[in-house]
Amino acid sequence: MCGRFTLTLSPEELQAAFPDFSIPGDIPPSYNIAPSQPIPVIPNEGGKKMDFYRWGLIPSWTQPDKVGKYNLINARSETAAEKPSFKNSFRRRRCLVLADGFYEWSKPKSGGSKTPYYFTLNGHQPFAFAGLWETWISPEGDPLKSACILTTSPNQTVKAVHNRMPVILQPADYEIWLDPMERKPEDLQGLLKPYPDAEMTSYPVSTYVNSPKNNSPQCIQAGTLL
After folding, report:
1. 48 torsion bin: left (phi>0), alpha (psi -120 to 50), beta (else)
2. Cα–Cα–Cα angle for 167, 115, 111, rounded to 5 degrees
3. What integer is the mean pLDDT of 45-59?
4. Is 182 an annotated catalytic residue?
5. Is the pLDDT of residue 225 over 50?
6. What is the DSSP letter of 112?
7. Which of 2, 95, 148, 219 is catalytic?
């Protein structure tokens, strides 16, 4: 799964990397984005504007007393089109989730605590996860927009640490993924694949990142491999 990620670049750098989209000029750097927090998304509503949605998709049919209990931060790309919580979003409500890195934790070989690893594209270039979004309406009529990140099998870089990785889309695939029209799953499934191994890098970081309360450059500083 993908349970933490980063977006540390300036709005100007993000705008240069995503020239076809409108990026707000007041995005603070975030080194430890965690579930239930706002995440930067570009939804397929045709406006090509970045917004912030709650991380943890809430299906539209969710009962009010269950909203706080939903923690659908990830969806398996292989089965999302079939699952009740995701299938309508997969066809109609897709988004880009902007990032410049993500974390995974390795399982210790013999006891001890897990080691966090930070994964980025070479050169720390920003990228976009494939995401799904939904709107939930409260009994008072207030909308709550939420999103999740699709995952796939890992490339060799991620496989050394974890058995899943988030889907990182190729820029050439943004247009079809953000098509506001309904799409059949078979039109989209080919986009949801592991990112090329040679274009990624990773390194261990400190367990400082384990707490979502910590949000500073220290989170991405190289740590000691245990």
Report:
1. left
2. 125
3. 95
4. no
5. no
6. S
7. 2
Contact 133/93 with Cβ under 8 angstroms?
Answer: yes
Check if 104 is active-site: yes
Q: Which of helix, strand or coil describes residue 68?
A: helix
DSSP per residue, 192-212: --PPPGGGEEEEEB-GGGGST
Is the pLDDT reported for residue 51 higher than 50?
yes
**How many angstroms separate the CA atoms of 131 and 175, rounded?**
14
Considering the candidates 45, 95, 104, 140, report the single residue annotated as catalytic: 104
Average pLDDT over the chain reads: 94
Whether 42 contacts 98, CB under 8 Å? yes
- Measured CA to CA in angstroms, residue 78 lies from 5, 57, 74, 151, 167 at distances of 22, 17, 12, 8, 11
The whole-number pLDDT of residue 226 equals 39
